[in-house]
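G., the chain you wanted modeled:
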Amino acid sequence: SKLSSVINLKILDELPQRSEDILNGLIAAYNNAAVKDKNKLASSTLGFVLERLDVVGKDLTTIESKLQQYKSNQGAVDISSQGQLFLESVNVNDRKLAEVNMQMAVLDQVENYVRSKDNTGGMVPSTVGVGDPLLTELLNKLYEAQLDYDKLKTTTGENNPMALSKYDQITKIKPSILENIKNQKKNLEASKANLYSTNNRYSSMLNSIPKMEKDLLEISREQNIKSGIYNYLLQKKEELALAQASTVADSRIVDKAQSSFG
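Predicted structure as C-alpha cells:
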C-alpha cells in the first residue's frame, strides 16, 4: 500500500550470502543518499558561512596591520575617555547595522533562488542570520517539494499526475516566500535608516575629538565591526557543524536481510 510505513524487499539469488549483501548494501546506499539530500541545505549554509569567514578574516588582518602601523608611525598609544565613550556607543550600533546588512544579503540570495526559472536539484541558499522561522520553514518545504518533483519527473515523467501535483505545490509555495522576503526587507530598511541616523549623531560627536585620536578611533571602530561579524560567523559555523553531524536518514531498518531456508 502507498500509505504503508513499512516496505518488504526480496531478491532471488542462487547464493544466499550474496543476496543478503545486495539488499543490505541497497538500503545502506539509500540511507546515505537520503542523508546527503537532507544535508544539502546545511552544506549550503555552512559553505556560505565559511566563505564569509574567509573574506572577513582577511579584512580583519588588514585592519589590525593598519592599526598597528598607525600607532607606530604616529606614536599614538591610548584613546582618551571621550574617545572610549564614543567607541563604546558606536560598537553596539555598528554591530546591529552589520547584522542588518548581512540579513539583506541573505534575503537577496534567497529571492534570486526562488525567482530562478529552473532551480530543481540546485543548491538551496543559506538563511543564516535571518531570524524568521517562517521563511526557513517555507524554504525547506520548497526544497523538499522540488526534490520530490525531481525524483518523480525522472521515474514517472513530467506529465504524471503526481509530478504535476508536486509542481503545482512548488508554484504555490514560491509567492509565499517572496511575500515574506518583501515584508522582511521593508522592516530591515526601516531599521537601517534608524541606525544610519544614530550613526550620523555619533559622527558629529567625533568631529570634536583631535585628529590623531579621531583617526585612531575610526580604525578601531572598523576593527570592532569586522571582529563582531567574525565572532558571529564562528558561532554560526559551530551550530551548523553540529546540526550537520546529527542528521540521520528518515528510514529505519526493522530487520536486516536474511535468506530463507529455500
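The CA atoms of residues 63 and 223 lie 6 Å apart.

Shout if anything looks off.
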